[in-house]
Design a protein that fits this description.
By secondary structure, this protein is mainly β. It is built from two helices and eight strands; from the N terminus they run H-E-E-E-E-E-E-E-E-H. The longest helix is centred in the N-terminal third of the chain and has 7 residues.
Length: 138
């Protein structure tokens, strides 16, 4: 399991690691569609200056474009607004990664926002900008 961003907020920038494919043109297109706010929470500053990463609220909800696309898995997979997401429980929330899109978007949702999956519609426009691979949740 990757612990790539802190799911707790503070007055300092949210610590985020830039994913390997953050510079991919598809991520640049997706980043132009990040939501201005998520469930009433405004964007907050991140530790890296890249359009491919964004965060909202406190505790921080973090999105990163350019993560590796997941392989077929037995993890929970759900479809929200036409976008498939693989859900992985973390100790302090849930990690969602687009499925059937490459590069992929990762959204880290702290448990404080439960039910965590209810925030995914805010990311549909960004995720929909990524090229589809033909894989779908089954």
């Amino acid at each position: 399991m990757l612990a790539l961003a802190s799911l707790t907020g503070c007055s300092r920038p949210v610590e985020v690691v830039l994913p390997g494919r953050a510079g991919d043109p598809a991520c640049q297109a997706a980043a132009g569609r990040w939501p201005a706010s998520v469930s009433g929470h405004d964007r907050v500053t991140t530790s890296v200056e890249s359009a491919s990463v964004a965060a909202w609220g406190d505790p921080a909800l973090v999105a990163r474009c350019g993560v590796a696309a997941p392989a077929p898995t037995t993890d929970d997979c759900l479809t929200v607004n036409g976008v498939d997401w693989v859900a992985t429980a973390l100790t302090d929330g849930t990690r969602f990664v687009t499925y059937g899109r490459t590069p992929a978007i990762e959204v880290l949702v702290p448990r404080a926002y439960a039910p965590e999956g209810s925030l995914l519609p805010a990311f549909a426009a960004a995720a929909g900008a990524l090229p589809a691979t033909g894989r779908h949740c089954s």
